[in-house]
């Protein structure tokens, strides 16, 4: 990413607004209420296509004109959707070939949203036609602050298996491999008689009778991410040709969507924007929020970013949709800000009365303004105003965690040592363990420059390139500290096993060698000699140059090393070969002895300005050493900051 271009100064408050669902008298009430709530930035026209082009070639912009003028008159900036996220019914009826096809070869029909094939030339032509018109009409409007391309590209339609996609996949493969023999080698097609002699025989990995070729599956993931990125580029190019306003799209850095490799998308954004919803299917949804915010900051190259969507209360798409208790939405929002967000936006402004999302919370609930939810929004708005001077500062972190979408795709292949071992579980556990120690972590790509970090954590990095593995080893040789967890370094980019013993790519730096994996059945436990327990995974490990920190006390691997430490050059590398409490290893590796599990402590800085965020997720007051001025309460802090249970503090620190 070049330089970050935030749409609105300060820490902005924003929302998605779907005026198509309401009458003009409601628009006027909404604009007045938005002003009352201090809303600075409103996303419109996200699902606008069927209103703007009700029948082919018939365009109606009057309603959108009126809404934009109304918001402008209220001093609100516009985050303008290109309107292409969901095609109107006429497009799907006239061009059924634009509909996506699932892996089993069945069509996904309209009636929901995003029912389009990312490779469809017909869809692209019609969508770009609309984008050009929207850009021509509003590109120089004084209220326009941000272009919002489509919406959550790939949320539902990332993987399409239709014939058009198959052709596009073949084109992508030809440009990646040039020669069919190179593809055969990369995909290991000698196995199960899969050798290709002609490009035209290659299909997308549709459902098969048995396990599919894992390398083909990974290339299909890569292709699908690139294909949608190509689509984003096409829209962005049109917008940039007609307007100087920054362009972005909303990412889904979240636990349940994984189809886009955002490391390759991020450089194309003028500002990184993410949608985040607390996921109550996870063990610790708030810890995941912190992780997602750190990863979003990683995508933003450490610079400020936007929280483009979050929920004021409950969502409607989880099996059990838990609402937020008073204070929780504010804590969630401040966690995002602490970790680098300079904009806090919601889906959506006014709760829908109809449609599939009528049970989704909003800033303005069905019950109106005499509600806890509305008062929370006003309180958040006031808080964001008070801490506005934080905008533009950057998060201080000297520990990095490596994250890779490619590794996620490949580690969770159809046939693997244990279905119970998942990439995100490893990543979340490592991140949460650091967070519990009060350590702020940058989440970065495997090819990131690691030199400034005092510790690099590599959870379950199953797939890693030679170059990245070498850079990680060099970082340690030069004095760095590294913690690697099990099922790392196993394959190269072709999903080919690194022979000679696991964890292939990291054997030398870790000074260990494993002969075989020995996953445990779910629910089984082994005792470790350090008093902890191990679950899910063990391996027949021996040390080559490492020393042993803990062994298994029982089970099939009794006496075998479970945790090791290796001196490599001037640095130290730990290996954790089972799922276990990592706090002791991380304490040793970071030198941090405290335990802050219920409190988040993060610092943002720029030049000689420093802001300390303390977010108390517990119910009891907590104390933290600080000196300065708490922007939230307006009180000065003289040595010890007390944050009430459930409270937040942002201290402008005195730097001596
Ligand atoms: C997002 C989407 C919004 C809304 C929201 C509900 O995926 O961008 O349009 O559907 O989820 O949580």
Automatic annotation (TrEMBL):
The UniProt record lists the Glycoside hydrolase family 42 N-terminal domain at: 16-386
Active-site residues annotated for this sequence: 152 (proton donor), 309 (nucleophile)
Domain Beta-galactosidase C-terminal span(s) in chain numbering: 599-653
Q: What Gene Ontology terms describe where this protein resides (cellular component)?
A: beta-galactosidase complex
Which UniProt keywords are present, listed alphabetically? Glycosidase, Hydrolase, Metal-binding, Zinc
Q: Which InterPro entries match?
A: Beta_galactosidase_C, Beta_galactosidase_Trimer, Class_I_gatase-like, GH, Glyco_hydro_42, Glyco_hydro_42_N, Glyco_hydro_b
Give the record's GO biological process terms. Answer: galactose metabolic process
Reactions catalysed: Hydrolysis of terminal non-reducing beta-D-galactose residues in beta-D-galactosides
Q: Name one Pfam family in it.
A: Glyco_hydro_42
Q: What class of enzyme is it?
A: hydrolase
List residues of the Beta-galactosidase trimerisation domain.
397-582
Statement: the UniProt record of this protein carries the keyword Metal-binding: yes
What residues does substrate bind to? Answer: 113, 151, 317
List positions binding Zn(2+).
Answer: 117, 160, 162
Protein EC: 3.2.1.23
Q: Which GO terms describe its molecular function?
A: beta-galactosidase activity; metal ion binding
Q: Which family does it belong to?
A: Belongs to the glycosyl hydrolase 42 family.
PANTHER family referenced in this protein's UniProt entry, alphabetically: BETA-GALACTOSIDASE GANA
Spell out the protein name for this chain.
Beta-galactosidase
Taxonomic source organism: Actinoplanes xinjiangensis
